[in-house]
């Protein structure tokens, strides 16, 4: 069996930046164990698989260790392959996923993703989270992941979390964020329990970051910068 495989750097305009995703177009679904094994072999933060469903597509995402409910960069990467390589005459792709319908539109020089908002709520600060991060944030919120809000971009950049401790927390991952110098806000994202110590650029985390910073800044349009090593 031969399966096409593309590797796409998403959320970047430069080589070796953004978040690399593997994209595998399929004619029909394979066994879940095989999908997981391929993702583990690729050893990227996410491998996306899509299968045609009429004029639309079913889409799934796997980290090296688990299947996930939502992944932004691998959705963008899948749409890029579909709209530039496989169906270049089309301008919109609709995906059916665990998180509902996701739409991606192609413009002149940009792709636009329509994703669900996953707003967070304030929560008590788990002492295990503070110990794992090594620096106390101003406040902690929770949605699917914890979100630790810091005072400055420098604090976010200086964090050196204990990944083993983070992997034991009950949430899927941990977002850290602060106001930015050249962007409205910066962030980093850690999900070692799902096989992703630090994700380079995390579209799904912005489903939580955007509602928070929109309310905090009173702005409907924001520039976000994920300040990982690759950046995006």
Number of helices: 6
Q: Could you tell me the radius of gyration in angstroms? A: 18 Å
Oligomerization status of the protein chains: single chain
Q: What is the CATH T-level topology of the largest domain?
A: Diaminopimelate Epimerase, Chain A, domain 1
Query: What amount of the residues lies in strands?
Result: 25-35%
Note the overall shape.
globular
Kindly give the count of domains.
Answer: 2
Distance between the termini: 35 Å
CATH architecture of the largest domain: Roll
Helix amount: 10-25%
In CATH, what is the class of the largest domain?
A: Alpha Beta
**CATH H level, superfamily name of the largest domain:** Diaminopimelate Epimerase, Chain A, domain 1
The ordered string of helix (H) and strand (E) elements is EEHEEEHEEEEHEEHHEEEHE
The counted number of beta strands is 15
**Structural class determined from secondary elements:** alpha+beta
| Low-confidence regions | none
Largest sheet: 8 strands, mixed
Q: Residue-averaged pLDDT, rounded?
A: 96
Give a short synopsis of this structure.
The chain has 232 residues and is of the alpha+beta class. The protein has helices at 32-42, 72-86, 127-133, 153-158, 163-166, 206-217, and strands spanning 6-10, 19-25, 47-53, 56-62, 67-68, 92-97, 100-106, 111-114, 121-122, 139-142, 146-149, 174-179, 185-191, 196-199, 224-226. Strands 1, 2, 3, 4, 5, 6, 7 and 8 form an 8-stranded mixed sheet that branches.
């Amino acid at each position: 069996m031969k399966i096409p495989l593309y590797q796409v750097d998403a959320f970047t305009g430069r080589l070796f930046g953004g978040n690399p995703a593997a994209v595998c177009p399929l004619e029909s679904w394979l066994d879940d164990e095989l999908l997981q094994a391929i993702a583990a072999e690729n050893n990227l933060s996410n491998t996306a698989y899509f299968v045609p469903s009429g004029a639309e597509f079913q889409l799934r995402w796997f980290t090296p260790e688990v299947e996930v409910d939502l992944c932004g960069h691998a959705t963008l990467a899948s749409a890029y392959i579909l709209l530039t390589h496989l169906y270049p005459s089309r301008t919109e792709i609709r995906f059916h996923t665990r998180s509902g319908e996701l739409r991606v539109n192609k413009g002149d020089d940009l792709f636009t993703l329509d994703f669900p908002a996953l707003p967070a709520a304030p929560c008590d600060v788990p002492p295990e989270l503070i110990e794992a991060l090594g620096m106390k944030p101003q406040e902690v919120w929770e949605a699917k992941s914890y979100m630790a809000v810091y005072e400055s971009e420098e604090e976010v950049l200086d964090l050196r979390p204990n990944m083993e401790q983070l992997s034991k927390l009950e949430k899927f991952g941990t977002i850290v964020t602060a106001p930015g110098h050249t962007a409205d806000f910066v962030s980093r994202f850690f999900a070692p329990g799902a096989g992703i110590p630090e994700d380079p650029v995390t579209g799904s985390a912005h489903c939580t970051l955007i509602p928070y910073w929109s309310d905090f800044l009173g702005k409907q349009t924001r520039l976000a910068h994920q300040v990982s090593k690759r950046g995006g």
